[in-house]
């Protein structure tokens, strides 16, 4: 029997950390939030541990719910090139809000041999206790996915039991109107644009009309 492969990343215990990448994020650009507060604490931490800073990656005015962010994308690209040994963040929610995004991003870092440290959360994935904590985070993400899937399935079952149709409602097209416009010499695209329907819907309307005529 084949062993199931775990999706939880396993961070290297042997690779020493010399160079770190600092990542900071603020959601607004109105001056109420300043990434410098995060960065100053991260710089102090790196200095205390004798770590050199490869680069500082900062996203400003970007929501944490967005998985694609300019500075974060650049950081992950440099991580893939192994330009540093660890990513250092002020707090884990600065890096990712959703469990799915967090787990996927940390799995990528693990594949590149890059550790992850969250200063305020006391999470250091280069240590045994940090790796244990991430095992718990990974299990929570797995549990969250299972709950969402079950809620969706339960909702669909309930809707079907009540006789509700699942999916987009079928568009009603005046087939005779389509035929009239076609006989007047209009192209399919012109008819589609004039009636506000897609080309496929217009084609099906004519096909339905023709099939009714053939059946008479």
Structure description:
With about 220 residues, this protein is of the alpha/beta class. Helices cover about 50% and strands about 10% of the residues. The chain is built from eight helices and five strands; from the N terminus they run E-H-E-H-E-H-H-E-E-H-H-H-H. The chain has helices at about 35-50, 70-80, 90-95, 100-110, 130-160, 175-185, 190-195, 200-215, and strands at about 20-25, 50-60, 85-90, 115-120, 125. Strand 4 (about 115-120) and strand 5 form a beta hairpin.
Which secondary structure elements does this structure contain, and how are they paired or packed?
Blueprint: E1 19-26, H1 35-48, E2 52-60, H2 70-80, E3 86-89, H3 92-95, H4 99-112, E4 115-118, E5 123-124, H5 128-161, H6 175-183, H7 188-195, H8 199-215
Parallel strand pairs: 1-2, 1-3, 3-4
Antiparallel strand pairs: 4-5
Helix pairs in contact: 6-8, 7-8
How many beta strands in the DSSP annotation? 5
Order of helices and strands: EHEHEHHEEHHHH
Average per-residue pLDDT, rounded, comes to 78
* Cα-to-Cα separation, first versus last residue: 61 Å
Which structural class fits the helix and strand makeup? alpha/beta
Count of individual helical segments: 8
Q: What Rg do the Cα atoms give?
A: 27 Å
Helix content, binned percent? 40-55%
Q: Could you name the ranges where pLDDT drops below 50 across 5 or more consecutive residues?
A: 1-13
Share in β-strands = 5-15%
Question: What sort of overall outline do the alpha carbons produce when their principal axes are compared?
Answer: elongated
The side-by-side strand order for the widest beta sheet comes to 2-1-3-4-5
Largest beta-sheet characterization: 5 strands, mixed
């Amino acid at each position: 029997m084949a062993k199931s492969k775990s999706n939880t990343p396993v961070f290297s215990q042997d690779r020493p950390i010399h160079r770190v990448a600092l990542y900071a994020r603020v959601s607004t650009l109105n001056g109420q939030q300043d990434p410098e507060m995060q960065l100053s604490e991260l710089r102090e931490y790196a200095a205390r541990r004798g770590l050199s800073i490869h680069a500082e990656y900062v996203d400003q005015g970007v929501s944490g719910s967005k998985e694609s962010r300019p500075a974060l994308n650049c950081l992950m690209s440099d991580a893939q090139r192994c330009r540093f040994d660890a990513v250092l963040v002020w707090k884990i929610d600065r890096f990712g809000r959703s469990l799915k995004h967090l787990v996927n991003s940390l799995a990528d870092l693990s594949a590149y041999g890059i550790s992850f440290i969250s200063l305020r959360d006391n999470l250091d994935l280069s240590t045994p206790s940090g790796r244990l904590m991430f095992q718990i985070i990974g299990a929570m993400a797995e549990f969250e996915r299972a709950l969402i899937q079950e809620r969706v399935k339960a909702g669909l079952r309930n809707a079907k039991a009540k006789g509700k149709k699942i999916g987009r409602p079928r568009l009603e097209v005046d087939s005779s109107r389509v035929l009239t416009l076609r006989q007047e010499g209009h192209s399919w695209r012109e008819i589609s644009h004039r009636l506000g329907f897609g080309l496929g819907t217009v084609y099906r309307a004519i096909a339905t009309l023709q099939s009714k005529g053939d059946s008479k």
